[in-house]
Amino acid sequence: MAATMVKMPTSKVTIAYAPVRGLGAAIKMCCEFAGADYEVFEYQGVENKLEVDAWREGWWADKPAMYEKNSMINIPFVVDGETVVSQSNACLTYLGRKYKLLGSNDAELTKVEQCLCELMDLRNTVVGICYGPPDTYEQRAKDHFDNYVQVSFGKFEKWLTVNKTKFLGADVPTVADFHMFEMLDQHETWCKPLGKPQPLDKFPLLKELHTNIRTHPNLAKYFDGPQYKLTINAKRANFF
């Protein structure tokens, strides 16, 4: 069996991903919030054939070996000893169980699971625009802020109103809040080059959640460090 670029078994939790925030951000925030002993493995170019996002060469070279470890493999993935976990929500729930960030009871867990699924719907919509055809990008992006964002953010605002909690699953952060923060934060940045207003100005509870995550002392190292300073998307995207 071919050796993988991520050395196994790992001595600490390892998050493998591209050198972008993307789907990896919430997973990294989870480990940082928990005070976990973890490291980030970023794929890099190996043949210098790609002028943009050369890291894909490294991932493509490593994927066959990782497939032998987990046939569901894609990035991001988490390695914990001999365990390899792929698929973003599975990574979050795996770490949520490990670090007790899935709520304190079944009712809170159910809330977290629902929000993770809804957030992936939002994320996939954003990806379709950011990595879609460049000739229709600007109009699609503006329509997204005018329409989809109002509905999607409205759902989460209503969720917080009805559940009367500070965060999505409880009054303390869970893994869902890290992905929620990332999607809110991306939109607060993305709106600027499009000339759109800050979307959180219309959603006070989401704005409070965003602020509470951004200023949480457990995450100070993450926000001050290099991972938060990565581009949001890969450089081949319409917006990165």
TrEMBL record:
Q: Which GO terms describe its molecular function?
A: glutathione transferase activity
Which keywords are on file for this protein? Transferase
Q: What is its EC number?
A: 2.5.1.18
Q: Which reaction does it catalyse?
A: RX + glutathione = an S-substituted glutathione + a halide anion + H(+)
SUPFAM superfamilies reported in the protein's UniProt record: GST C-terminal domain-like, Thioredoxin-like
Name all GST N-terminal domain ranges.
Answer: 11-103
Q: Where does the GST C-terminal domain lie? A: 105-239
Broadest EC class?
transferase
Q: Which GO terms describe its biological process?
A: glutathione metabolic process
**Organism superkingdom:** Eukaryota
Q: Pfam families annotated for this entry?
A: GST_C_3
Q: Which Gene3D superfamilies match?
A: 1.20.1050.10, Glutaredoxin (3.40.30.10)
- UniProt key word Hydrolase: no
- Protein family membership: Belongs to the GST superfamily. Mu family.
Question: What task does this protein carry out?
Answer: Conjugation of reduced glutathione to a wide number of exogenous and endogenous hydrophobic electrophiles.
Q: What is this protein called?
A: glutathione transferase
